[in-house]
Amino acid sequence: MGDFTVRPLRSDEDRAATDLFRRALHVKEMTDEEWSAISSSRQPDRGLGAFDPELIGTVRSFDSEMTLPGGGTVPLAAVSLVGVRADRVRRGVLTALMRAQFEDFAARGFPAAMLHASEGAIYGRFGYGIGARGKSIEIDRHRARFRPEVPAGGEISLLDLESTVEQWPSLFDAIPRTRPGMIARSPYLWPGYEREVRRATTPVTTAVHRGPDGVDGYVTYTVERAHFGDPSLLKIHSFHYAGPDAFAGLWRYLLSVDLVDHITAQKRPLDEPVELLFTDPRHVAVQKIQDEGWLRLVDVPTMLRARSYRGEPVVIEVTDPFLERNSGRYRLSGDGAVRTTDPADLEMHADTLSMLYLGGWRASDLAVAGRVRATGETALERADLLFGTRVAPWCGTFF
Fold first, then answer.
1. Which residue out of 105, 128, 239, 399 is catalytically annotated?
2. 399 is an active site residue
3. Which of 123, 218, 330, 387 is catalytic?
4. pLDDT per residue over 109-168, tens digit each?
5. What's the burial of 125, exposed, middle or buried (CB within 10 Å: 0-12/13-18/19+)?
6. What are 40-87's pLDDT values in tens digits?
7. What is the value of pTM for the model shown?
8. Which end of the chain has less neighbouring CB within 10 Å, N or C?
């Protein structure tokens, strides 16, 4: 593993850890002014560092909770700022940091972790899997026309930058987190969001939708173009809503904004039916589909018991070489999940179970890719139903 130690970061080491992370991503170190603006976004006692004897690697997290399939929530550790100094990579530093962080999560009663991966090949070996995906879309504003049955929506009011920063937390908390994988936003996230919108080179606007019961949706956006007369782009930065009226009402507003040619939104839920609002769905182009949230079941027995299932039972065998205590067989049914010694119907590694857990992938599709091995004749069909969810999973929060 190399001659280094892993220990909790002191508060006076947070800036050095942040700079190390930024250098790992080829981003300039922070100025004093920038650090002053976001230093309060580091939750105390959630950072780890690897030292040799200088700081050579770091990882952080903040406390949250995640919505589960079938409702309910579990404590979630949201992992961020993962970096290893370029001259110390591939020497076991990241492995040691991950192991220490998982042990910390287990000790504090956090059965799951989530992160956004800078590279897709890194985290599978630590048991993370793509739990949620998102689609990036672009709309031709001049050609898109609403279908006649699309709801009219409610009242729209606009907030400027200062009001957006002030009201963002309450707006977000006003919208129910109904999709599997959605997380609560820690107070430590908002300073970073504020810094990003204050760096915008064009005005930041938030449109708030109000229905009969009050606020039920909002969208934050900027409009960009190089010169007057050039094509302009409305970029959606945040879009949350509680139901069909708010969804349609906010889109009606966005398409009414003048001096806009195209509208883009990044990493939206895979099943969000934007194209069905319009007479010609081809005016909404899907640009790409990306991983949107990497999930790790730190405590597999607890997480399997926490969510709901429907359908006939299936026994899965999980292999978890990084956290051996999770390895074993589990019987899943409409009555819940229990450890068992019964023969396995399906076999998989921990990262694959993380992909199945929120309902974002079907067991039968993962079997085609060689990620699941079926030993029972109808096991894949049963597993597809057991793990299936009404709506696609989505985190909806970048951290």
1. 399
2. yes
3. 123
4. 999 999 999 999 999 999 999 999 999 999 999 999 999 999 999 999 999 999 999 999
5. middle
6. 999 999 999 999 999 999 999 999 999 999 999 999 999 999 999 999
7. 0.96
8. N
Q: Which residue has the tokens 């002014």?
A: 33
